[in-house]
């Protein structure tokens, strides 16, 4: 079954109103003063939607000023698209109001769940990939795109466990969700690398299996390294370190297939000084300018 | 119980076993990998509380705070996806948390810190020009019906303890050792422009502001406490841009 709600009305591919094919960083309140003073050369800023679901105050004042100078990406972390239960209609309404207010160039959410039974768990939790979960995820994305009257990007997750009941592999599941709903892909290259180590698969083959013409944004981030019960490496997607060399290599490989795509340096923990983040964004920007597309 | 219900329950309750049906490529015990999710949930929520309640943490020490916060997370898991509001009932939890019983002021310090978060994110509402208020006060015949609208960030905390001094001692020069925690203090928390302010007020000012916030008329609110210095209280509200609406009921 497919759910062609309003997808004819939703732009496909890298929509003209999407993010520029440049590098960006997350907007953090500790950096915002310096950003507004120096207006660093960045392609866009990204914020977490839930941080701005408040009435007023400095967050909104700062974001409004940043939006005078840069395109904005709003990235949701609380919609719980992969949940068994219904989407929270109040949360979706709050999201719609936020998007109306800021008219961001891009809105994205995760292939994950974060709430159950009215409890918000504040983590991006994994789901099995079955016919049943596929249908539910597609229904939820249809509901989101219809309510928001825009195309969203869906982000591939970083996971630490897999489910015995899964009948789809992850890239095929994601490709099918995109095909059915018309949503785009936020390709988190760090998540691909983390999951490829954690589940022992070929990261490049995973990337190739995705519908790369639908990538509207790329995320890059750092991970932490642990070991599992067998002593094999277990990578943790913690957004608290610089982008790893292996992730830069996978990014180069990906860009060779996609061509230049808006790229976020994602850093939420152990926040460094702004120039460190700008330097990493510069590394991504350099690749965006020099990439040779091989596909 | 559904698979996600079991997964969610096991995340929050360390005594629960790792859910069934998880698979690891090398056949190793999935419990260790599931523990990553458990840790993410607990640590991120405890961190959120530590961000909102830095002075509570300073008063009890990090180790005590994180243990108390972990217990709170497990018994008062967030209902909202907006983490800024998480911990609104931490003060009530602390009040009944026996290990913190030797610090009877701790709950009110938590209330003060939560009030500061609310003030930070409260709606932006412009103050009425002071001339408009002066004009209103100069018309005694209309004064009887006047109600003041106050800025949505403004909150009053009347404590039996010296919560302002305890909080202030963690912001700068005031020496914590010089604070007598058993002195009652009334605290005002509000935002002036983009700046969250925390100040002490007289108990009478606190009664007055609370009555105005509850919708009482200016005269009714002012007559409740004979100790009230109304001109000084109004001057403070005007100076801090906190009077946002004049309603004559006509």
Short synopsis of the structure:
The complex is a heterodimer of chains A (295) and B (250). Chain A is an alpha/beta fold and 295 residues long. In chain A, 37% of the residues lie in helices and 20% in strands.
Describe the protein in words.
- The complex is a heterodimer of chains A (295) and B (250).
- Chain A is of the alpha/beta class and 295 residues long.
- Helices cover 37% and strands 20% of the residues of chain A.
- Chain A has one domain (7-288): Alpha-Beta Barrel (TIM Barrel), CATH 3.20.20.
- In chain A, helix 4 crosses helix 5.
- Chain A is globular and about 50 Å long.
- Chain B folds into two domains: 1-103, no CATH class; 123-250, no CATH class.
- Chain B has helices spanning 3-12, 30-52, 54-60, 62-75, 90-95, 106-121, 130-137, 140-143, 163-168, 203-213, 218-222, 230-239; strands spanning 22-23, 147-150, 155-159, 185-192, 195-201, 243-247.
- Chain B is elongated.
- Strand 8 of chain A pairs antiparallel with strand 1 (22-23) of chain B.
Lay out the secondary structure:
The complex is a heterodimer of chains A (295) and B (250).
Chain A: E1 23-26, H1 32-38, E2 44-48, H2 58-67, E3 72-75, H3 89-102, E4 106-110, E5 113-116, E6 119-125, H4 131-148, E7 153-155, E8 162-163, H5 170-181, E9 184-188, H6 189-198, H7 203-208, E10 215-221, E11 224-227, E12 233-236, H8 245-258, E13 263-266, H9 274-290
Parallel strand pairs in A: 1-2, 1-13, 2-3, 3-4, 4-7, 7-9, 9-10, 10-13
Antiparallel strand pairs in A: 5-6, 11-12
Helix pairs in contact in A: 4-5
Chain B: H1 3-12, E1 22-23, H2 30-52, H3 54-60, H4 62-75, H5 90-95, H6 106-121, H7 130-137, H8 140-143, E2 147-150, E3 155-159, H9 163-168, E4 185-192, E5 195-201, H10 203-213, H11 218-222, H12 230-239, E6 243-247
Antiparallel strand pairs in B: 2-6, 3-4, 4-5
Helix pairs in contact in B: 2-4, 3-4, 3-6
């Amino acid at each position: 079954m497919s759910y062609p709600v309003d997808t004819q009305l939703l732009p496909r591919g890298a929509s003209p109103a999407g993010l520029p094919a440049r590098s960006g960083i997350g907007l953090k309140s500790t950096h915002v003063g310096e950003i507004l003073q120096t207006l660093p050369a960045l392609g866009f800023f990204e914020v977490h939607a839930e941080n701005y679901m408040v009435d007023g105050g400095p967050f909104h004042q700062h974001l409004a000023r940043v939006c005078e100078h840069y395109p904005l990406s709003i990235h949701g972390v609380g919609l719980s698209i992969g949940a068994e239960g219904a989407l929270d209609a109040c949360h979706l309404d709050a999201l719609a109001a936020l998007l109306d207010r800021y008219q961001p160039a891009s809105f994205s959410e995760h292939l994950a769940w974060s709430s159950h039974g009215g409890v918000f768990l504040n983590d991006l939790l994994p789901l099995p990939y079955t016919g049943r979960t596929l249908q539910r995820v597609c229904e939820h994305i249809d509901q989101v795109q219809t309510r928001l009257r825009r195309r969203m990007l869906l982000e591939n997750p970083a996971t630490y466990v897999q489910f015995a009941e899964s009948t789809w592999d992850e890239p095929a599941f994601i490709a099918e969700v995109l095909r059915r709903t018309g949503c785009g892909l936020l390709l988190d290259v760090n998540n691909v690398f983390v999951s490829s180590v954690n589940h022992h698969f070929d990261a490049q083959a995973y990337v190739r299996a995705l519908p790369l013409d639908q990538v509207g944004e790329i995320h890059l981030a750092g991970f932490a390294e642990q070991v599992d019960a067998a002593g094999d490496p277990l990578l943790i997607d913690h957004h608290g370190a610089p982008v790893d060399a292996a992730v830069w290599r996978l990014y180069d490989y990906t860009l060779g297939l996609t061509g230049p795509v808006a790229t976020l340096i994602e850093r939420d923990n152990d926040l460094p000084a702004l120039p460190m983040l700008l330097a990493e964004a510069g590394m991504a920007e350099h690749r965006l300018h020099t990439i040779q597309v091989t596909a | 119980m559904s698979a996600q219900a079991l997964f969610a329950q096991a995340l929050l309750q360390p005594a629960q076993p790792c859910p069934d049906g998880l698979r690891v490529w090398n056949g190793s015990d999935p419990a260790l990998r599931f523990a990553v999710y458990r840790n993410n949930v607990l640590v991120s929520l405890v961190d959120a509380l530590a961000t909102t309640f830095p002075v509570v943490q300073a008063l009890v020490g990090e180790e005590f705070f994180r243990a108390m916060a972990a217990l709170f997370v497990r018994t008062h898991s967030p209902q909202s996806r907006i983490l800024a509001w998480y911990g609104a009932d931490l003060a009530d939890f602390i009040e009944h948390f026996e290990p913190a019983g030797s610090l009877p002021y701790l709950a009110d310090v938590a209330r003060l810190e939560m009030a500061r978060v609310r003030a930070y994110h409260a709606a932006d509402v412009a103050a009425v020009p002071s001339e408009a208020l002066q004009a209103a006060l100069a018309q005694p015949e209309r004064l009887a019906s006047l109600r003041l609208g106050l800025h949505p960030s403004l909150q009053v905390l009347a404590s039996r303890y010296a919560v302002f001094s305890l909080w202030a001692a963690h912001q700068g020069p005031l020496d914590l050792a010089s604070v007598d925690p058993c002195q009652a203090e009334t605290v005002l928390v509000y935002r002036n422009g983009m700046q969250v302010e925390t100040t002490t007020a007289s108990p009478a000012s606190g009664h007055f502001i609370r009555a105005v916030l509850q919708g009482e008329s200016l005269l009714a609110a002012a007559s409740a406490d004979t100790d009230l210095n109304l001109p000084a209280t109004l001057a403070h509200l005007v100076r801090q841009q906190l009077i946002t609406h004049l309603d004559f009921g006509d």
